Amino acid sequence: MKGYVMDKEQYLIERLEDQITWYDTKSKSNQRWFKSLRVIELVSAAIIPFIAGYSESVPYGTVVIGALGVVIAICAGLASLNKYQENWLMYRTTCETLRHEKYLFMTNTRPYDGDEAFNQFVTRVENLISKENTQWARSIKEKAPGGQRK
């Protein structure tokens, strides 16, 4: 696409709004997963001592206790492996920072109050997106099996 130039409106809609929506959606999804897994962990952990107190009268009480322990381990492992909390916070931060930059630009507020406002805006927005992508790639490398980098 040699010679293709986006104007302000195109950039705001096709690039910035698209990125804000993506980060917002991913943040909400990661928050939902993190909180759901934590609730399952908490409920399972709370049930274990209750069943243990009545283990003689609860059929298969020891099996249920063991199964709940497995559920807790799986939930904790999934939360840790997929980094739901970290992703939730990182995506939310990026989303809100992009929104902040958008509102500064749309109101001609410093640093977007000069002749080069649009160029500065695009540069800052793209740097924010690039920084988040770099952090994401680093976290993926840290998740490689056996702690090895991919």
Automatic annotation (TrEMBL):
The chain crosses the membrane at residues 36-54, 60-81. InterPro entries: DUF4231. Keywords: Membrane, Transmembrane, Transmembrane helix. This is DUF4231 domain-containing protein. It comes from Pseudoalteromonas luteoviolacea H33. The lineage of its organism: Bacteria, Pseudomonadati, Pseudomonadota, Gammaproteobacteria, Alteromonadales.
